[in-house]
Amino acid sequence: MNEIALLLAATLNAGTVLAIAGLGLLINERAGVVNLGAEGMMLVAAIAGFATAVHTGSDTLAFVAGMGAGALMAAAFGVLVIWLNTNQYATGLALSLFGAGFSAFVGITYTQARIGERLQFAVPGLADVPLIGPALFRHHPLVYGAIVLAAALAWFLYRSRAGLVLRAVGESPESAHALGYPVRRIRLLAVVAGGALCGLAGAYLSVIYTPLWVEGMVAGKGWIALALTTFATWRPARVLLGAYLFGGVTMLQFHLQGEGVQIPSQWLSMLPYLSTIVVLVLISRNPAWIKANMPASLGKPFFPGA
Questions:
Q1: pTM of whole model > 0.85?
Q2: Do you know which PANTHER family this protein is assigned to (predicted)?
């Protein structure tokens, strides 16, 4: 029973990184912008957050630094694709490559660095409940914050006026522009907000989840978060569930290794990425279903007055 509790706890921790980044990318795509630079943004945010934690000892400042780094990179991406009309896919890939190289260069001096002892969190009265306590109520507050964020984003998109405007921009920017909405500014704000959340995910990874800095430590999580938006058909609650699913698959490999299952470690390491490919292939078999849920102007440039 204790092993099940540990596996569930590890699943929530691993899924939090994917959930926060996936929700950020969902905001981008709901506004009609595809950002393939999540991997690079998360890497730069990871080193920014880790370096801040090393020098200040403050997790809060580390998260702020990570969000700032992600938002800054996303803003640069937004200016290029929204105002200068560069190709969204090529620019996103360039951002990802830049982030990987820049973080590796900056992080050279931090590979041997260590941050202070991590605080242990527990929900009073619930953390000691057998099985449920260790599995659900001994996590960093950001684990629960990801759940609150998904609920808040769902309310924002479907119940608030600003959320409806954001969705309108993603569905038909021409119509939104005709009604007087500043489409390009709305898209830029959405891109920056999405980048800040990707940055928060990267900082959480290096400061709380590991906590250490290793070159390339995001290890494809940015790409999995990007795939999550399609898997979830652009709905926040499904992004959250998908994140925990992929997080569980990731943790399963370590659980099986710990149990001495005679499977080559390389096959176990492939599980999260293999499951991502399988899910995307299954979803792609029904393109009409994807088209019915996908923002109509996703990935399409907008030229005011054209």
A1: yes
A2: ABC TRANSPORTER PERMEASE PROTEIN (PTHR43370:SF2), SUGAR ABC TRANSPORTER INTEGRAL MEMBRANE PROTEIN-RELATED (PTHR43370)
